Every structure is written in C-alpha cells, then in structure tokens.
C-alpha cells in the first residue's frame, strides 16, 4: 500500500506540473496587444538604426574631448637604460640609467587647435541631429508598418465576407437548380466565383502575416510574435496648410540643420588649413635624472625651452590644402541649397498625397453603402427569378472593390500624414 500511495502521489505531481506547463505555454503564446503608440515606443527602444546613431554621437563627443586636449599642457616621462662598451683602445665600459620628465604647451598654433575644436563641437551637434533624424525615420517606419497591418487585416475581413456571401449565394443557386428553376451554368459560375474569392482570401491572409512580420522587425521583436492590434484605420483631419508645413520643415528638419552645420564645419576647415601660413609657438620644460646605478636619480639637470617656428616654404602644400578646403566649402553650399529644395519637395509630395487620399475617403465610403444596397437588391431579384446570376456576381465584385478602395484611401491618408510629419521634422516625444 505505501508503494501504491507513493506512485499515485508522483502521478498527481506530474499531472499538476504538466498542467502548469500548459498554462505557462498558453500565457507565453498569447498575442501581444499593441496600439500605434506602443509600436512606436518599442521601435524607438529596440531599433538598431537609433543605436547606430547614438554610437556615432558618442564617437563625436569623444572627438571633442580629443581636440580640446590640444589646448592643455602635456607631460611625458621617459626612462632609458643603456649599456656601453668603448673600442679596444680603452677598456671603459659601463651602463647608465636616465629619467626624463618634460612638459610642453602649444602657446600659439595659428588658430589650428581652435578651428579643430570648433569643427568637433559642430560635428557633435550634427551627430545629435542625426539621432533626431533616425528617431523620426524609425517612428515613420513603425507607423507605416502598423497601418499596413491594419490595412491587410481589413482586407482579410473583406475577402472573408465575400467568401461568406458567395457561399450563401451558391447554396441558393444549388437549391434552385435542384427544383429546376435555374440552369447548370449558374451553379458552375457560382462555384468558380467562390473559388476565386477563396484564392483572394488565402493571399490576403498571407499578406497579413507578412505585414505582422514586417512590423515585428521594425519593433525589434521576434518575427513570429503574434499581435493583437487595438486600433482601426481612422480619419482625423489635418489643420495645417501646405505653406505652414513647408515653413515648419525649414526650421525643424534635422537633415537641413545638418547641411547648415556642414557648411559651418567646412568654414572652420578653411581656417584650419590657413593656419599653415602662420607661425607656431611652443614652450617646454623638463628635468633629467641619470646615474650608472638603477633607477638613475643621482645627477639632475633641468631645462626650459621656448620655440617659435614658421614654415616659410613648403612647395605649395599649405596652399593646396587651403584650396581643397575652399572647394569643399563651396560644395557644401550647393548641398545646402539642394537639401533645402529636397525637403520642400518631400513636404509638398506628402501633403498632396494626404489631401488626395482625404478626398477619396468620402467618395469611397459612399460607394461602399451604394454597393451593399446594390448587392442586396441583386440577391433579392435573383431569388425572385427576375434577376440573373451575373447580376449577383457583378454586384459582389463591385462591393469588394468599393470596400477595398475605402480601406486603401484610409491607409493612404494615414501613411501620408505620418510621412508628412517625418518630412516636416516633427520632433519625436
């Protein structure tokens, strides 16, 4: 009996453990509930594009530190251990240990150090803007992928309704065929239309799964993560005019600010190159300790040096450097103009696309209502024997097309609005 009792106890424990594992697996497999704001937040947290931009920003920060060190005093400690043996005429040989401590300071570099520091600081500001631009692009990518999931989900529902309608119609046709009121061709045509609708549904479901994977990719989630989307494709009017949007973009777009900074950096690069025409002044001081025995700290000497140098001839190397810098500066001016035009064009395109989609929303919504009414009438007429099978088929195709157009208009409007905010450089909160 005790053995039988222990066996039952172990079996109960195993069953309880299995039940716990099943429940844990069910929890782990539960779909992730996701709003638009959630998807953007996850993308901003996990997307590698932002991490890369932050790494570049950290690089730029240390470049500033490196350049600023050029204005500070530097020190060097050198230890030398030597053994010497003179030629055969003398028998002197020995060894020596010396320690040299020196400090130096670049008093004047012709403006080279100062220009280098300004370039590095401007580069850091540009790196900050690159982070902003990366965040704005990731926000747009997450939003557009989220809207794509909504679009494909709605299209799946449209195709499901089409299959349901055609299935019900086929049952009606078969019932009428069995009593001899319709021809066999009506049954065959209805079967073909249903098969075509089922094919469209399969494709729509596949497109939805691909859209989910793309959204997971942007958010940095496993591609197989199941999502439960909270929102629906909606419409919220946009108040700003095109001129307002363009004016805003010229003030806020990070890429445009970067182009302006690039021009400032290249101006400093010209000054950096022109420093080669000017003299440099360096002061240094140090002490030298040496002794035949380690560590070599017996005999002490010290020195102080002030050094001025001026490169009066370098075969045109400095002039060539200045000309290169000036050419790069001129190029950056053209790039700035090009970027300004490009930003305005992007804003204009996104705004016009948004407005065009906005107009389609109203007309396509009316078309959906009309197509639904037409389909109901076609069904009633066919059942009453005064309409044809082709009327029902055509009405179903028109209904599916109207619903698809309405979903497409909502999708185009929302994605265009998100693209407009990116083109304007709207900051990411």
TrEMBL record:
Endpoints of the signal sequence: 1-29
Coiled-coil regions listed in the entry: 187-214, 340-374
Gene Ontology terms: cellular component: cell outer membrane; efflux pump complex
Keywords on record: Cell outer membrane, Coiled coil, Membrane, Signal, Transmembrane, Transmembrane beta strand, Transport
Location(s), subcellular: Cell outer membrane
Domain of life of the source: Bacteria
Molecular functions per Gene Ontology: efflux transmembrane transporter activity; porin activity
Family, as annotated: Belongs to the outer membrane factor (OMF) (TC 1.B.17) family.
Name of the protein in its database record: Outer membrane protein TolC
Originating organism: Propionispora vibrioides
